[in-house]
Amino acid sequence: MIKIEQVLQKDGKIFAVSSESPFYPDGKGGQLGDRGHIGDAKVFFVKESEGKFFHQIDRFIEPGEYPYQIDMERRKDIAAQHTAQHVLSAAFLKVADVQTVSFRMSEEFSTIDLDVPTLTHETLSEAEALANEVIRSCVQVEIINTTKEQANRMNLRKPLSEKVEEGFVRLVKIGDFDLSACAGFHVTNTGEIGCVKVVDWEKVKGSLTRVYFVAAERALKDYGKRVLVLKQLSTLLTSSIDEMVKRVESLLDKTKEQAGLIEKLAEALAVEQASKLPEIKIKDFKVAFYDGIDEVARFLPKYCSTDVLVCKTSEGYTISTKTIDCSKLVQILSKEFNCSGGGGKTKGSLKTSVKLEHFIESLSKVLEVIQ
Ligand SMILES: [Zn+2]
Questions:
Q1: Contacts of 232 (CB under 8 A, 6+ apart)
Q2: Ligand 1 centre from 82 Cα, in Å?
Q3: In this protein, which residues make up the domain named Alanyl-transfer RNA synthetases family profile (predicted)?
Q4: Amino acid 168: pLDDT
Q5: pLDDT in tens, 71-89
Q6: How many whole angstroms from 180 Cα to the centroid of ligand 1?
């Protein structure tokens, strides 16, 4: 039974508050929290704050005593990810003499921040291989409850934090491979983890390397996802997995080459079209129009000599002029069409889908009165 002392509603969320709880809180020691039920209410999240447990639940319940149920499958997954972290952290220390400074577990993957700005792929592979060797060796995982004083005399992977209060300390011992203080969930034998896989790494906070990993069922699920994606890519690229990087590189090179060619063709077309664009005269201004290809429209201002050039693009309109203040023109027209627009003295653009005739009509009215 769990004794709910208070039920709070905050920012549209409901919390059942208790002084003691069988639910492991989220974020404690980097670990995910428990899920389950309190009475009929589903528990989404558990927060521990100032000695109280705040269980976020899906419905309002009255304070009182309730039976509870904890999702043990989830606990099993959390235990496997957490022990995998201890094994992996110890492996990095043994292989590269690199200490883990923090650990975080999320619903899909976990991360450790290593006290090193860069890691080679070889080091990552070596540590991962050692961790998997330990996992496959089915090493017993023991929980040792001891005192702070005694713990400090033992060969801990990481010295106890100053913040640890005097009294009992919980240690997790993985054979002779690792010993560290931890309050989280763990498997009883490393064999239960199955495997651990590093899936990504990046430099964080200037001097640390964040390593992303998955273990147990999560690793298998992740592998399945990657196999599916690679299978799809392999079909799309008509290439084997081994050839894929080369194939994508060559496609990207080709795309770049084609983009350059399009630029050249667009400019050549703009040179040819610039003097042939339809023109009208509004007051003393010669206004030319272009309704065609965006890439050509980008080059036209360079080669068109009328007072104003209006190009219809896939996003709206661009205006270029050397005789009138273009920003003023855009400002009036964006108000008229109730659309966004911007630009400087000589160039501007408007995001609108109004028809060209309508645009010309409004532009004419503005040009009639503009100073
Ligand atoms: Zn731990």
A1: none
A2: 6
A3: 1-225
A4: 85
A5: 999 999 999 999 999 999 9
A6: 7
